[in-house]
Amino acid sequence: MGATNLRFVKIGGNRVRTMTLWPDEETATFAIEAIEAMGGSMQGVTFVASEKGPLVAEFD
Question: Which pTM was predicted?
Answer without folding.
Answer: 0.69
